[in-house]
Amino acid sequence: MAIIKPFKGIRPPKEFVEAVQSRPYDVLSSEEARKEAQGNEKSLYHIIKPEIDFEPGTSEYDTRVYEQAVSNFKKFQDQGWLVQDTTENYYVYAQTMNGKTQYGLVVGAFVEDYLNGVIMKHELTRRDKEEDRMKHVRVCNANIEPVFFAYPDNTTLHTLIHKYVDNVTSEYDFIAPIDGFRHQLWVISDKNDIETITAEFKKMPALYIADGHHRSAAAALVGAEKARNNPNHKGDEEYNYFMAVCFQASELTILDYNRVVKDLNGLTNDEFLAKLSANFDVECKGTGEYKPNTLHNFSLYLGGQWYSLTAKPGTFNDADPIGVLDVDISSRLILDEILNITDLRSDKRIDFVGGLRGLGELKKRVDSGEMKMALALYPVSMKQIMDIADSGNIMPPKATWFEPKLRSGLVIHSLD
Questions:
Q1: What span, in angstroms and rounded, lies between the C-alpha atoms of 2 and 244?
Q2: How many C-beta neighbours within 10 Å does residue 232 have?
Q3: Cβ neighbours for 404, distance < 8 A, ≥ 6 positions apart
Q4: What angle is formed at CA 12 by the lines to CA 7 and CA 43, rounded to 5 degrees?
Q5: Rounded to an integer, what distance in angstroms lies between the CA atom of residue 209 and that of residue 376?
Q6: What is the pLDDT of residues 298-344, one digit of tens each?
Q7: How many whole angstroms separate alpha carbon 279 and alpha carbon 260?
């Protein structure tokens, strides 16, 4: 069963929310954050990417940078740009992209649920990235940014959420710069509704990390660390929980996560296409963009032409939660077997492009000469992610791209 609780969110007054809110720390560089925050002392980047307050080139891991995060977090509260709610609440967070809206519940997720596997993972984490976020959580004594969970569809929660979004004016409502998506927030303070939400989550056998594996690990590990270091630990302290936005699985949008490769491992274009034909039905589609239209169908851009690649029977196993994945098929039969790219996390010959950028971005990077070929994949489904997590398996790297991204700064969770 999944244990959650409401909490006293720290958040901006309405008049400041658009100035404070930001993109997540890990989707942009320090220089991009510096540019976006230019002239805006209220930008959350001063807390989540505080290296922007130092000379360009300052390492984000510099001790001074973490100290600056603490100082800026305090400044934001002293200036009234962030104010803590006086009661424990849940929050509804809505995101609208291309006319489609998904509704999430902002909750305190239970650290122990992460440690014992009730909160399910589908990706590996890197210790260096975990440690960076752990330092940030420790020094700020807060979860500044939320993690992104999915939960099995639930009619009671769907009805309760729409009781607010259909009948109550939202606390926040703005169109974010850069992505142009709409973001809204409602406060749930009614005790009966809070009890209903808590009870419905308690019936769920699992929650699923959709996005934010490193933030989830960091938040849970710091909570566990604080419990170990507290001789009077009882189990009901606020640090036993970390902030998550939980969405109904069927509402989520997962985009394709595509690949661009620098060379063909010494092969000519014709030799590469010939090798592909051993495991794929290869069909030239000409110069017009071709997008994969079903599972096990891929799009290749090479030499100014688009190709359809359809994996032949016997090259995949639909009964295997990993073997059914197109990211696994393409990794095994194209990147590894033909191009000798065996480590997607470290090989410098490959890069990855989120589907939001479109096929045009793939074409641009190949036509410019930067890359030799591009491979577009059919998106992974939420069911596939949940099946993999349930089976105890881990997805191959760079398999999912969730959009829209959560905006940071709408709600913050204090560990006190």
A1: 13
A2: 5
A3: 95, 97, 179, 181, 253
A4: 125
A5: 24
A6: 999 999 999 999 999 999 988 888 888 999 999 999 999 999 999 88
A7: 20
